[in-house]
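Can't paste images in this forum, so I'm doing it all in text. The chain is below; anyone willing to post the predicted structure tokens underneath?
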Amino acid sequence: MHPHPTRQWRVPPALPALKLAGALALPALALLLDEGDPVRVALAVLAAAALAGWAARDLVAPVRLAVDPEGITVIRGFAGRRRLPWSAIEKRGAAAHQAAEAGAADERVPAPVGGDGEQHHQHVEREQRTGGELVRRLGGDVR
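Text version of the structure:
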């Protein structure tokens, strides 16, 4: 990741702990209520393994999105990262967003790039506000 990110959107710290607790509780509950059914226990162990893997991803790569003056860094795969410069980012205008929600064709316009430092700083702040709003709606933590 970039050494000095301006803003980061992270997994809430309690979420991996909650997932790990669920991963421990599922097999225990299945054993308690198995009534001699090995399929029930096997499914609980499988679900617990999936929860533990999901929690491991949260612990290994807690930063889901990082924004800085040069671009953004997003999570890729299990714990990889992908760096995207601002010149590679497309911004969806409000009209295109409304049209897409209504089922119309997706029209995208490139994000503003270049200009003076103040213009770029304003652009980064605007992207942070809208990105933070999206992350909050998805249940993430904005820092």
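The CA atoms of residues 62 and 116 lie 33 Å apart. The chain has one domain: 7-138.
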